[in-house]
Request: fold
Amino acid sequence: MPDGKSDLLLTNARLVTFAQDPFSDRGDAVAVKDGLIQAVGSRDELEGLQGLGTRVIDLEGAVVLPGFIDTHVHLVQTGLQMLSIDLVNADSIPGLLEKLAREAREFRGNFIMAYFDEMNLEEKGFPTQEQLDQAAPGRLLKITQLSGHLSLTNGATFRWLDLDPSTPGIGRNEAGEFSGVLRAEANHTFSRVANARLVSEEQREESVSLAVKECLRQGVTTVHALEGGGFFGDIDSDFIYKNKDACEIDLILWDQTTDVDRVLERGLGRIGGCLTADGSIEAYTAAVSSPYTDGTHGSLYYSDEEMEHFVTKAHRAGLQIAIHCDGDRAVEQVLRAYERALRECPRYDHRHRIEHAEVITHEQIRRIARLGVHVAMQPSHLRTFGSKYEEHLGAETMNRVHLYNTMLRAGIRLAGGSDAFVSPINPLFDIQSAVNHRSLPTESLTVYDAMRLYTVEASRFGFEEIQKGSMETGKQADLVVLDLDPRSVHPKAIDSIKVLRTFARGVERYSL
Reply:
């Protein structure tokens, strides 16, 4: 029995420990001391750890899991979205414009931020630049599609942005004039410039505070924060780098840059994240081998030479690498770069990552498994954007979307993430999504395996399996308390389970 009295004792609990010892779940109590798990067992076994200063909480049969780990969050932008105008539920273009005009009158500052999903609009399209000018006259405006890979804006903002007319992704109408839509490089530039020049430091601070509170409300105690880069500029990664140690949850910073020297100077040990090899299925910009229903194939954002140069340099420097690949052509480009780097400079347990892998081939799965590359997936995407995927990809490609079980059977390490701001931070929603594959039932995970994606498996993606991911003596006391065991409810009711309490480093940070 460990020495010393506990700071905290949770009793009358149902435990899901994910520990190597299969008998550990038979206990009903967890003792915490100095931010670490002191012991796990029965109430009687832990009785001797209770002292005068021990806080004892009777959980009345609630379920305790290790704190959830979200391996893919854009934390600053998630908070900024929480400060933005929500146009997602608009069901028509006139309705969107009406709500935008109404909300814009109350929106503080000259720069209006909003987000939307055109698939909810009756027209399945976009308002024009002229309509946006009328809704927010003279104001700087950025309306972001949920994927983040497409933006709408008005004429005033487009003129302020002053893009080179040859920039790829500038939408044009039949008259050759700006349509109000920005994709690909034009969208990246818009996002980066607006984030640096129009978002205040106070807004950034408020956004991170809001995002962290939401993490705790959802039982998330560790976040892989994928910040900055070509999308949003260094300002976001700089902010997290300066402030991550003061946060109530643990932040693992991924600087979304190809500047290896910058990352080495900061001692981060990792590079990339949503370092975009391609775009998104929703915006027709993910690089796919079979054409979209509109006849296009999306785009690769780096040449093969650029990708191989970056990966080789980062790999030789000992960094862990993560790269965004939505489509199978992007997966192929990055996979070839990983293969070359590992062939030229073999490295054990590198844990390089591919983010998303939404469309993939079976041959690529075999190569990923052989290389030991880890795959960070976002099950909520298929649930949230599935109708858009079906419309854009067609039946043949949909047979290669989100192949969870195939990857697991091949021996690939999988972890889950929200991709917030694109999808909400909500591991229970994500777990339900993984358990109920939208289009391929045989790819649905068991509830237990889906929970592992956000606990014990996710801990490996940050090289933290010794400290986190399971409830075992000596590990960090990151715990989430649920009213029900996800394995005990209907598979389509998992996201109705309530988070009752969240403990981060042994401190209760949230209670319902």
Remarks:
- The chain has a mean pLDDT of 95.
- The chain has 18 helices and 23 strands.
- Residues 150 and 419 are 16 Å apart (CA to CA).
